[in-house]
Amino acid sequence: MLKAFIFDLGGTLLHYESASADILELNNRGFVALYHYLSANDQVVLPEAAFLTAVRARVTVEWQSALASFLGSSIETPLKTALSELGLRLNDDEWQAARQAFFAPIQNAVEPRYGAQPTLQALKDQGMSLGLLSNTFWAADIHDADLARFGLLDLLPTRLYSCDIRRIKPHPEAFQMALAAMGVEPNEAVYVGDRLKTDVEPAREVGLWGVLIKTPFRDEQSRHILPDAVISELPELIKLLEHRR
Questions:
Q1: Mean pLDDT to the nearest integer, 108-134
Q2: CA distances, 68 to each of 2, 37, 60, 105, 169 (Å)
């Protein structure tokens, strides 16, 4: 019996400028905004190009290491390291202001996918437990704030972000952690994501039903990875629920 729906975040519940902006572009906007903030407050004196090169290099190393090891991490760790290497040692209050400057342009790019709030509400009303499992290099409180803005936070009481749980999809432990947190068995849950290799395939290997949600900005096709279902938008999950149960 189906008891739970677990969702990916970016590309599934939320879009970043309709998914046209990737993580590298969004990070770069954040780095630029951070530089301008620090410069305006006389905390950095080196040229913008040198600052951006140093920060990008440190962050890229950390992100590539996380992907290779399937161990989650937060961008704030290499960002702080990069600033320290540049001679910028911020106290707690200064760092909170700086991180706000960094994340502001990223949060400005976020919008919910069509039908996200009413779909999740309808699933909840039908007795489904709802959760989130997402690979996130940005901080959990930032994502939670975005979800709250769009009326989704309270509908997702279980939220597992890779930066916190230290596991990155497609590692099976990430899915197993989500199932354990929700108290359901694999055959009682559906995982909804926008990527075949990161979402659908590993979910199905663990025993969940894997649903691919299409995105008009990336063509997800594979002869070897076959989703249990394919939807174009989130409201289609309501009809899918009727067949799955």
A1: 97
A2: 34, 33, 12, 28, 11
